[in-house]
Amino acid sequence: MLAMAAMFVVTIVLGIIIHPFHDNDATRAFGTEGASQARFVFLELTLIFVFTAAIIWLARKNMAWIIKGLITIVIFFALISTIVPLTYMAMVDEAPPFSLTDLEVENEPLALEPMDTQGNQLLWVNGTVQYSNLREGAIGTTGKVHWSTNVTTIQSAPRAVRGPTTIGLCGEGGWAILNSTTGDVRSSDFFRTEEENISRGGCTLAFEQGGNTILINRNLVIRLLYNDSRLDQICALPSSVALGGEDDESPGLTFWNFTGEVLTISDGRKMTSATFPESESEWSQLCGLGGFRGTPPPQPLEERWNITESITTAAIGLSPNASSQWWVNQSEHILILGHPDGRITGFELDEDGMLVRDTILRTDKGTFDGEIRSITFGDYNRGGWMDVFIVDETSMRMLSSSSFTEQVTSTISDDNKPLLTPWVNIQYINNSFWSDEGLNDGVIIVTNMHSWQSGTIHLPSVKPVMGPAYAFEIVAFVISLALMVWLLVRPDWHIVNIVGILVGAGVVTILGVSFVPWLIILFMVLAAIYDWWAVYKSKHMLDLAETMIDLKMPILLVAPQEQGYSMRSSDGPASLKDRHEIGITADGEGESEGEMIRGDSNDSASTEPQRSDGREALFMGLGDVIFPGMLVLSAITWLPHEPSWFNIDAALICGIGALIGGLVGYTALMSFVAMGRPQAGLPLLNGGAILGFLITVLLVLGPSGLALGGVSW
């Protein structure tokens, strides 16, 4: 009994060890979105029913060789899912930790916008506007300069608005519109006194739209027609946004984005997306003329959508979950918002910039440390999909893949607390180990008002050795193949247990990262009901168990009760239907139909385990391990990661609670079996794991930990 309990624990702990390797979208059976959709649980159950029916039909047709072949293939792939992470951990050196250090950059440039995907960035350098490629130069320089322009109307680092062909600048003293390709000044002006021109007394943003300069001043939209300011057309931003107020309050601008026809802007309390009029007549109807008394008050621009929530920063970028690499696909965008309480939320955008739907942003942290200061998109290793960099009050973090898994954390020093929104820029440098493969490390540059910081994200020091295959993958394949050959040639309990534990660890991990805990619990409840019916009502599970044991496949764990026991010398149990002292369960993946069997050679009740040629053994199906293990791994994957008891991760504690509950259920099951009372395994095992999970979540996370978290059909 203790040996079986030990194998139960070892299988799940091994799943926890390999969990980080599989905690990504590529491994999730139905992606991140499918992890919270109940229909996929019913799909899994349907597959189990189909598998069960197929195995029973083949067994009745005496086609055991087909059954063994199919199960061998499934077991091999499940085995690979465990062996690959283990060989990776054994063979690949751990990458150096990431940290940020102060960086001295010539001429102390200030970044006016995030770096684009090609490495280009607009900088403010000693009073001039400079457009450079930071990747085409040494770290600590501004790289290759495309153009540099001295804008006489602006005296300090301006806000920049990039349009399709122009760059608009608004700073202390005045505004300017530049040609984005050459840097030539297309138009500019100094600010005037209120007596000279109330419509041009300052600006929050400046850009060009339809050939005319647009200034945003507080909540006014000013369209400059001629040098005569009396003919300026004045509209208003949608009523949901007001940048500043009376008494020279500074604008509360936290985000802006301009596409040529649509302006998206946030004042920190709300965000709006507004469309500009298309024709001169529409402008005239909508906007009054500045400078003329009696002109009707300015009308607001047409609002496309708005978000009414406090926003500290935001970013629009290519989706980390795009269907193809960013250099192929430039159409799938996502809007990510940062909030004062440390949350991030997101929305997908269609090709017209309209909000499509809320996007689930799962992070390792429910909230970050204080308000979100910056959100930036960047492909740190030029892999083709965007990573997201989050700067809060204390740290910078890199979130990778559509699951937003936290990969990098670095503390920002007290001396470098950003006074302006910092930009996280990505440079690439050649790593000699990877140069032949054309892959690079990512250099992270964080800029703020006073200084720059840098750090290198190192890729693992591995490379393909045979086509696309890595050395650790080849070794894993060879080990898995050797284990399968050993299993088929000499299928004794030693190899059955070794392969069974490895297979079970892989299955619990893949299923655990594929479903949120509530769906795993639904899965477990439905499977327990099915198990009870299959054992006590239809009894077809007994036929299935006989077939599986006769095949001596690692879909069960074996605990010999006496020295010298051998599965090879055992003909297996007599017909299970003729035995009363059994506990038998269906597995969770259709890969193993497991059982706990005890009994003697006659029909009478007995407290002795099964005997075969005078030897004793206890059997437990992998399903008894897989279902509780699924809940353990799901808790570790999807629950909030935050310090809890003894500073241990809360999600890990909740997972351990489910494991302990499963062990309690196992103890109860074995107690019933020892008393000669037949039991289906999953009701007790799953019930114990679920109860242990719920109690631990309530103790560690409170009632909020039981939130459904976006579960849908």
**What Rg is obtained from the alpha carbons, in whole angstroms?**
32 Å
The assembly state of the depicted protein chains is single chain
The share of residues in helices is 25-40%
Overall mean pLDDT score?
76
Biggest pleated sheet: 5 strands, antiparallel
Name the strands of the widest sheet in spatial order. Answer: 10-11-12-13-17
Strand share of the residues? 25-35%
Q: Runs with pLDDT <50, length 5+?
A: 430-440, 571-615
> Which structural class is indicated by helix and strand composition?
alpha+beta
Described by the principal axes of the CA atoms, the overall outline is elongated
Number of separate strands:
37
Distance between the termini: 40 Å
Total discrete domains: 3
- Please, how many helices? 12
Quick structural overview:
This protein has 713 residues and is an alpha+beta fold.
Write the layout of secondary structure elements.
Layout (H helix, E strand, L loop, with lengths): L1 H21 L8 H4 L4 H22 L3 H28 L9 E3 L6 E2 L8 E6 L2 E6 L10 E7 L8 E4 L3 E6 L2 E6 L5 E6 L14 E5 L2 E6 L2 E5 L8 E4 L18 E4 L3 E5 L4 E5 L4 H7 L1 E2 L12 E6 L5 E6 L14 E6 L5 E6 L5 E5 L14 E5 L8 E5 L3 E6 L4 E7 L11 E8 L9 E8 L4 E6 L6 E3 L2 E2 H19 L3 H20 L4 H20 L3 H12 L4 E5 L21 E5 L6 E5 L12 E3 L2 E7 L1 H16 L11 H25 L4 E2 H20 L13
